[in-house]
## 1
Amino acid sequence: MKPTRLLLVWLATLLGLSIVLGACRALGVYVAPSLQAINWGLLLALLLLAVLDAARLIRRPSPRAQRQLPGSLALGRWSEVQISLQHDYAQPLNVQLFDHVPDGLDFEGLPQTVELHPGQRHLLSYRLRPLRRGHFSFERCEINLPGPLGLWSARRYLTLQDSTRVYPDFA
């Protein structure tokens, strides 16, 4: 898990305010005690929200994914690979997807960011070009899943095992 930009901006803002309030107090400038209490309250609230968001993100199930890959590819020719994503959450979800392409295959169109809607299947596609002949195994793809409050994001690996063979281009 890693913090999102939203959490870092809120944290930097509140810590910057704390530094300003502390500097004013150190310089002898009068600062109302209620301002410091409000600042501490906001920092505590942010901490509680961050812990709640992290706990809910850990328990959040990953979306389901399925890869559609041609059984054989022509050497040096571009082909299309499709990945379908679906989730059962109550609200839309923005995820970033990256497919782990084996060495020896060139790709275009990854990573992709997509908004998944509840109960709907979303189809992503990217292009793939073999650089050498042989058998290639696709093991997994990776998604970046945001927390319910948007304060954290988690990298999840989805096991999607597929394979393809690359033959010379007979066309």
## 2
Amino acid sequence: ETYQTLKFIFNTARINKLIVNDPSLDIVKPKGYKNTRRALTDEERHHFLKVAETDERFNLFLLMYYCGCRPSEAREVMGKDIDFLNEQPMLHIRGTKTENADRVVPIPDVFYDKIKDVKPDEYVGSTSRGKKHDQQTYKRLCKRLYREMNISMGCEVYRNELIPPYPLAEDFVPYCLRHTYCTDLQKKGVDIRVAQYLMGHADIQMTA
């Protein structure tokens, strides 16, 4: 919008002979993108972690929160991807989005205690039948998470249906958990190049 306004002003000035040349012709628009992703608020974080304790299927979302997995990556994580480095539990994220997406990240002890008994051939964030999530089961699990977080945040329920208004913000999506992971790295003073690796970003500008 600002770019178009400047173009209009300078072009009009040139037509009216108030200026000789239109300087807006040399303007280079910066690269940008629309991004609604955000970190969790303190309240959302509290209720997410509270709800995550109630259902093992929510381990899928904890992979995003504690290890920075993309949703598609979290669905692929298996017990065989858990290993140790100098006694620190580590997770091999078999990312495929870019060459940088394949990475190894530390697993916080609080999360490792929840998933340490997952067998090598089992999915860490599986369906209730122990299978890998497909798009449909993933969407249902997301709805389950939204419902439980709304209830935890004080939403009233009548005949098993949530009664508006819904306390959970409309823009909350599971990807916010990955964004929170990255934000927490910054708050802890982690070098941006290390954060880039842990996030699996090909471009450090994305990390920034």
## 3
Amino acid sequence: AVEAERPGSRVVGIDRSLGMLIVGAKQRPELELVAGEAIDLPFRDRSFDVVMGNFVLAHFSKVETALFDVVRVLKPGGRVGFSSWSDGSDAYQGAWLELVESVVPRDMLAPAYAAAAPGHARFMRPEAIQETLRDAGFRRIRTERKRYQWTYARDELVDGLATWTVGRFVRQMLGDRGWESLMERTRARFAERFPDPLNDFRDVILAVGSLQ
């Protein structure tokens, strides 16, 4: 949940992953960060003017329940903003999953794959996002598809793999020694295949709406 960033406002970031919160604290140390679930937000009713969710819709197994709680913490007339990936996996994800499946059989990874982004195919379409927000009670909904470029150090991406759903699952299965061995292979493979820094081009859907 995030309130509009303006003088005197309160801005709060929330994520279920402690790893992601650590990354967020490094990037924006001035922000208040909270560990929690979107389907049970740890805030009082009508706490925020704005709630934003970046690339989260596809990760909810019960998106309707999550949006119900988003509505609960919004003030009357409050607004939401969501972003969603509008394309398939890229070369970096493909290389990572290839390495993962070399040490963990694909059938054993099925639960992690299913949990990672159960709604990815659905929310690649602006129409699906509009319908979902409308059903949750939002109006004046607008969507826009844009292409973005991200540039970041190769090692940052590799280090961040541990915070992804599949990464957390595999790390638990392999243990510390097995995980570090996989990470060494991953760093070597990425160094062979990809430049440093990495340039990532992705298509993104931006969606906004309000309770009035």
